[in-house]
Design brief:
By secondary structure, the chain is an alpha/beta fold. The chain has 12 helices and 12 strands. A 9-stranded mixed beta sheet has the order 5-12-11-10-9-8-1-6-7, with helices on both faces. Strands 3-2-4 form a 3-stranded mixed beta sheet, with no helix packed on it. The protein starts with a helix and ends in a 5-residue tail after the last strand.
Length: about 375
């Protein structure tokens, strides 16, 4: 891609991001719209790896600088660091000033970090899908997550859940996840015993490392204080259970070798959440091909929580009631390989960070 085409693509991403941020982050919506017309700031993203040239990486880099304790006027607009000022034109100028004043720090993060929104709120959908799969995996189960970041989703059995009037998980957990149920209910979400937890990531984060933990917070939008509090609680849970195996590497290269290390007597559940957007079409096809090959070797479950472009679930969505095209959503899909056969089910739609669940699986 030529430099001018690359710049144009990044400008378009900032414009889309401004629309997507909407009411969830008026600050990011305002600033992203302005940045789309600022070629110098947009060009900073060109220093990120191609798959990471996304507005939320730049916003996370700036947020991380503020979370380090920088005393700067921009902090007044970030509730995450105590700011109380509403988004306004002055916030855009403050953003530009911080990027200019701390250019080296911002660029260093853009070049070396990646967007790793390790959102515990997604665990309610994951747990509901695993509960639905339980008749097929009624054995101790090994979780293998593709794109695991700090591995917070791999602790899903250690969190407390509320699905309407139904509760599940340890009553004394520091983390409570209660999605709005827009349709139906997955019912009592009993899941198998988790016997092993493996996360595969190009750049795994250590939840006990202050810099890594701060980066996870930087990837949360600054107005979303409830998400930040839940993230802090999930980090505390992870710090108390050092049993996640972090595999550093490409998920395409490591998926099959990791699954083949699992005891044949155990069940395997492969999870991936907001991971496939960072792969191209050829790589997505390879993931499916590799999963099919593994499913011919042993019984296997895959839980997919991804954008509405992922097949076969994207095609299956046409059987559901029409969604609001202006509303961001993930599809919750379940694939089961048993006895060499494959079964795909679209269980519902989910707000990308788990705020709501539209359940289309069997009603509990």
């Amino acid at each position: 891609m030529r430099a001018d085409e690359q710049q144009g693509a990044m400008v378009a991403r900032f414009r889309r991001f401004a629309q997507e941020a909407g009411d969830r982050s008026p600050l990011y919506a305002w600033v992203s719209d302005a940045i789309a017309r600022d070629a110098e700031i947009v060009s900073l993203l060109a220093q990120a790896p191609p798959a990471q040239r996304r507005p939320n990486l730049l916003f996370a880099a700036v947020h991380d600088v503020l979370l380090c304790g920088l005393d700067h006027p921009l902090a007044a607009y970030y509730p995450s660091v105590g700011g109380t000022q509403p988004a306004q034109p002055a916030a855009v100028e403050a953003f530009r000033d911080l990027v200019a004043a701390c250019r080296d720090e911002v660029v260093e993060r853009v070049m070396t970090r990646s967007t790793q929104t390790n959102e515990p709120g997604r665990c309610a959908a994951l747990r509901a899908a695993l509960a639905h799969a339980a008749p097929w995996v009624a054995r101790p189960t090994v979780l293998v997550e593709l794109g695991s970041s700090a591995g917070l989703l791999l602790h899903l059995d250690r969190y407390r859940y509320r699905f309407g009037d139904v509760s599940a998980g340890p009553a004394d957990s520091e983390v409570t996840i209660a999605p709005q149920l827009r349709r139906g209910s997955p019912g009592p979400p009993s899941i198998p015993l988790i016997s092993r937890r493996v996360g595969i990531d190009l750049h795994p984060l250590d939840p006990g490392d202050p810099d890594d933990a701060r980066w996870l917070k930087a990837c949360v939008w600054p107005e979303e204080r409830a998400r930040l509090r839940r993230l802090d609680a999930a980090l505390a849970v992870a710090a108390g259970h050092a049993d996640v195996e972090h595999v550093t590497g490409d998920i395409l290269a490591e998926l099959a070798p990791v699954v083949r290390t699992v005891d044949p007597e155990a069940a395997v559940a492969v999870l991936h959440c907001a991971t496939l957007a960072y792969l191209d079409q050829e790589q997505r096809v390879r993931i499916e091909r590799d999963l099919d090959a593994l499913g011919r070797e042993r019984d296997l479950v895959r839980v997919c929580l991804e954008g509405d472009f992922v097949e076969p679930f994207a095609t299956m969505e046409s059987d559901l009631p029409e969604a609001d095209p202006a509303e961001e959503r993930f599809l919750l899909g379940l694939t089961t390989w048993a006895g060499g056969g494959r079964r795909d089910e679209l269980l519902g739609r989910v707000q990308p960070h788990g705020a709501w669940l539209e359940w289309h699986g069997p009603i509990g």
